[in-house]
Specification:
The chain is globular. It is α/β, with parallel strands linked by helices. The protein contains 19 helices and 12 strands. The protein has helices at residues 17-21, 26-29, 43-48, 156-160, 166-178, 217-221, 224-233, 244-247, 265-273, 276-287, 293-302, 311-315, 325-334, 347-357, 389-402, 420-425, 436-441, 453-456, 462-469; strands spanning 96-102, 187-192, 201-207, 235-241, 251-254, 338-346, 361-365, 367-370, 375-380, 410-414, 428-432, 444-446. It is an enzyme of class 3 (hydrolase).
């Protein structure tokens, strides 16, 4: 019996799939929007055809998936900067949800860099430094007691698309992965909420969140890396803890002036008697938190003495309901939510607006009327409390308690400094196109074109929103 020398045995080379399917590009390996690939090659085909022809191979830096698909589709995959996931997260691991809005209404970078802009002319200079909204209590550089702000970061959305692009989302995932201390790998996934082709709103879920002993949730919301990401990509990021209460709200309260309506009512009244400038200046300082709200309200109301009491009827034709307010209220009512308007304005117009939008509760300030002359006395009715910051927070809690609603199932939306307490008390507090100080201090803020954007924060996608407002 002859023995065979093992060294003389020629074995076929085993195909290595990793050489065929991986690339040298992180972005190619983790295409968030790639559709399923119609790839039919199998192990059996490779082994069976190995002797006849060399196995199919891709270029070292190629990807079997088209790196730039024409349509964006939900991937359903977990994204990570790693090629493998060694540790499976235990059931019940907390999750965070980031809703990323591309800002289409007010571009952060209206001027391209002269070196890269096709419209740049010889001699063009960089625009002067500006204070980004929400980064300081005031936008006036002269009032900031520090050095002028650094130049704006490079406007990457101009290079990669005016929407939440693949590279934008990849950059966000890299930032999220780098934040925890001590380091832990994260599992992340995403959904495009408005449309799959060039989405404006994308929801990213990641787990586990950073250890609160090292980075609290409040600090994470204000983290410098996320703030810079927002500036670079012209987006806004709203972070929430994932839970059943995030998706199922039962009470939503709104500020009225500059939130549900685009006007400041007391300024509109002031126009009738020619004191608009004086009242507007006080209103602006009060909304920025520079003045005590109750004291400033009494001061402004005193300037309205002698105004005919029917001024509120005349104002109804002047007031402009904010874009998306009707649709938002209609959708929330169809979901079974209770709605309330808590206003530092005045009761007659708050009740009128509640009737227009189908709102259940209306609380505002009551102006005293002289029964003889039917004019405003310049005083507030003393038997009614002033609707200031503390009273708004108290009303939020009392309305929730009266309806058996857990505070985690409440939403508050406002724009002024007198809204901050209720924004922090609610399960979700949203500063809507707010004053600079409010954007800086509020739990979350969005500056879109329509109040319908609030529905995306509840995890609703565009198809569901359209069904609710139909």
């Amino acid at each position: 019996m002859s023995s065979t020398n093992p060294a003389e045995v020629v074995r076929p080379t085993r195909p290595v799939l990793r050489q065929n399917f991986s690339s040298s590009s992180f972005i190619h390996d983790h295409q968030q929007y790639k559709p399923p690939a119609p790839f039919t090659q199998t192990i059996s085909n490779v082994l069976g055809n190995h002797q006849q022809s060399p196995p199919l191979a891709f270029a070292g830096n190629a990807n079997p998936i088209n790196p730039d698909p024409k349509r964006v589709t939900e991937s359903g995959i977990i994204h990570s900067i790693f090629h493998n996931q060694e540790d499976v997260l235990p059931q019940g691991t907390p999750k965070l949800v980031a809703t990323v809005f591309y800002k289409t209404s007010e571009p952060v970078h209206p001027h391209l860099h002269p070196d890269s802009s096709p419209n740049a002319r010889p001699g063009d200079k960089l625009p002067p430094p500006v204070v980004p909204v929400g980064s300081a209590p005031t936008l006036d550089i002269e009032k900031i007691p520090r050095e002028p702000p650094a130049p704006e970061p490079e406007p990457l959305d101009h290079l990669y698309g005016h929407y939440v692009s693949q590279l934008c989302l990849t950059n966000f995932l890299q930032i999220v992965e780098s934040l925890p201390t001590p380091y832990r790998r994260m599992n992340t996934s995403h959904r495009c909420l408005d449309k799959h082709d060039q989405p404006r709103v994308v929801e990213v879920t990641f787990s586990p969140p950073p250890n609160p002993d090292y980075l609290t949730f409040a600090d994470l919301r204000k983290h410098e890396s996320i703030w810079r990401f927002e500036r670079e990509w012209n987006v806004e990021v709203v972070l929430q803890r994932e839970s059943v209460f995030r998706r199922h709200k039962r009470l939503v309260v709104f500020d009225m002036d500059s939130t549900l309506i685009q006007n400041e009512v007391i300024d509109e009244i002031a126009k009738f008697i020619g004191v608009e400038k004086e009242v507007s200046e006080i209103t602006e300082r009060a909304m920025n938190g520079e003045l005590d709200f109750s004291a400033s309200l009494k001061e402004r109301v005193s300037l309205l003495k002698g105004v005919p009491a029917d001024v509120f009827e005349k104002l109804k034709s002047v007031l402009t309901i904010s874009p998306g307010a009707r649709e938002l209220c209609k959708a929330l009512k169809r979901l079974g939510c209770k709605l309330a308007v808590l206003s530092g304005g005045f009761q007659p117009l708050a009740e009128w607006l509640a009737g227009e939008l189908g709102i259940d509760y209306a609380f505002a300030n009551h102006l005293e009327i002289d029964p003889t002359s039917q004019t405003l006395t310049g005083q507030l009715v003393p038997t009614y409390p002033i609707i200031d910051a503390n009273q708004k927070r108290s009303l939020l809690c009392s309305i929730a308690a009266d309806n058996g609603v857990d505070i985690a199932q409440t939403v508050a939306v406002g724009d002024g400094a007198n809204d901050l307490l209720m924004l922090h008390a609610a399960g979700l507090g949203v500063a809507w196109r707010a004053k600079s100080k409010v954007q800086l201090e509020a739990p979350t803020r969005i500056n879109g074109e329509s109040l319908v954007d609030v529905l995306y924060l509840l995890g609703l996608d565009n198809e569901e929103i359209q069904e609710l407002i139909a």
